[in-house]
């Protein structure tokens, strides 16, 4: 199989028919960060992962990852030669081996380190996923969340160049999901391995993904940086509730007595603090927050008798109608853009126009931090 010298890229192009289902995928993806794949049930998310891994053969197409062709027209690299770690919905650990045994089994099959992939040592993986307390246990002694943590550690043990995660949290309850999401955030921060993360859950993807691919009926509906995708007015109806922005903010002040913290939109400018729910982030740390457009309302004068904590001066940059016939307004607050979703009636009543100065109201508890 050809090894190319052109710059790193991740290209996926194929057409495939399975029974009556047709898939036609044409994607150029980043080679770092978390790439979220979202779509309704049966849209083709798992099929996309299976094609990338080689588990689903294709007759013709291109799968090109970081200087290597895994599929080049009709020529295919076998599954076992693709340096990919896989995490499924079910952990499927070997029941007759302890957790240490399961991890060592994977390690024996590890890829040799190369310059393109980050080499992971066992201690790093144990630390990142807090494995030490589990090593001498048997799979039957673990909770669902612990088993999934081991499954992620096992996928990393093979020293992959790419991690594929297919609904890894869907079998877990809310608390366990939050726990594993924190581990995944840590992995994302510390590891340079790109992750393709399939999920039905827009909130999981908003929290983790840097890039989003939306699949609809076997083809790509849209793809791009997560903020670009979530600010589009014509997202599929299953994502309409999630239109909004994801911002990198900086923790400025903690207020434990009322479980709030103030964040700023830029590191040095605290003119317009945004109050959000308390998290464990420390002052000065970066905090990723999500503000849904449906949680932002607009007033022409600054309310004083309101329960809403955040009332920010904003300029209207644009006004457009979305797929639900609601009005999506792009607002500029300091140097940051946020979105407000309001009804046509409210937009007309307030006679809103681009260029106008207004007040954006955001409930502190509506901001996801
Ligand atoms: N080998 C196959 N033969 C025939 N049809 C298949 C095959 N594999 C998948 N399909 C069909 O292709 C469609 C897409 O399946 P896929 O599992 O990729 O969807 P998905 O988006 O991952 O769905 P879900 O979110 O429910 O897991 C489904 O209707 C599925 O039944």
UniProtKB/TrEMBL annotation:
The protein, known as: Molybdenum ABC transporter ATP-binding protein
GO MF assignments: ATP binding
SMART domains: AAA (SM00382)
Organism this protein belongs to: Marinomonas phaeophyticola
Start and end residues of each Mop domain: 305-369
UniProt keywords, alphabetically: ATP-binding, Cell inner membrane, Cell membrane, Membrane, Molybdenum, Nucleotide-binding, Translocase, Transport
Domain ABC transporter: 6-242
Annotated Pfam families: ABC_tran (PF00005), TOBE (PF03459)
UniProt xrefs under PANTHER family: ABC TRANSPORTER I FAMILY MEMBER 10, MOLYBDENUM IMPORT ATP-BINDING PROTEIN MODC 2
Keyword Protease (UniProt): no
PROSITE patterns hit by this protein: ABC_TRANSPORTER_1, ABC_TRANSPORTER_2, MOP
């Amino acid at each position: 199989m050809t090894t190319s010298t052109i710059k790193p890229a991740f290209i996926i192009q194929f057409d495939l028919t399975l029974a009556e289902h047709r898939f036609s995928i044409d994607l150029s993806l980043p080679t770092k960060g978390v790439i979220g794949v979202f779509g309704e049930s049966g849209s083709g998310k798992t099929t996309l992962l299976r094609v990338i891994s080689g588990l689903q053969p294709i007759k013709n197409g291109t799968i090109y990852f970081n200087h290597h062709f895994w599929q080049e027209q009709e020529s295919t690299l076998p599954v076992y030669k693709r340096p990919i770690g896989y995490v499924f919905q079910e952990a499927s650990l070997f029941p007759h081996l302890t957790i240490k045994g399961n991890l060592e089994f994977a390690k024996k099959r590890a890829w040799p380190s190369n310059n393109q992939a980050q080499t992971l040592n066992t201690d790093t993986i144990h630390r990142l996923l807090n494995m030490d307390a589990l090593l001498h246990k048997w799979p039957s002694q673990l909770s669902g969340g612990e088993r999934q943590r081991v499954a992620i550690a096992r996928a990393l043990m093979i020293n992959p160049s790419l991690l594929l995660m297919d609904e890894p949290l869907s079998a877990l309850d809310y608390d366990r999901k939050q726990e594993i999401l924190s581990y995944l955030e840590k992995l994302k921060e510390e590891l340079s391995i790109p992750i393709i993360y399939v999920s039905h859950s827009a909130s999981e993807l908003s929290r983790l993904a840097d890039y989003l691919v939306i699949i609809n009926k076997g083809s790509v509906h849209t793809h791009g940086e997560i903020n670009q995708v979530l600010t589009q007015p014509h997202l599929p109806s299953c994502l309409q509730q999630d239109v909004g922005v994801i911002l990198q903010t900086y923790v400025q002040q903690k207020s434990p007595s009322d479980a709030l913290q103030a964040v700023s939109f830029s590191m040095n400018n605290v003119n317009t603090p945004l109050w959000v729910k308390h998290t464990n982030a420390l002052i000065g740390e970066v905090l990723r927050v999500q503000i849904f457009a449906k949680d932002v309302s607009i007033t022409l004068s600054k309310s004083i008798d309101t329960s809403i904590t955040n009332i920010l001066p904003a300029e209207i940059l644009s006004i457009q109608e979305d797929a639900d016939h609601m009005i999506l307004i792009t607002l500029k607050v300091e140097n940051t853009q946020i979105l407000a979703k309001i009804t046509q009636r409210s937009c007309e009543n307030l006679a809103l126009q681009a260029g106008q100065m207004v007040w954006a109201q955001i409930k502190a508890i509506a901001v996801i931090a």
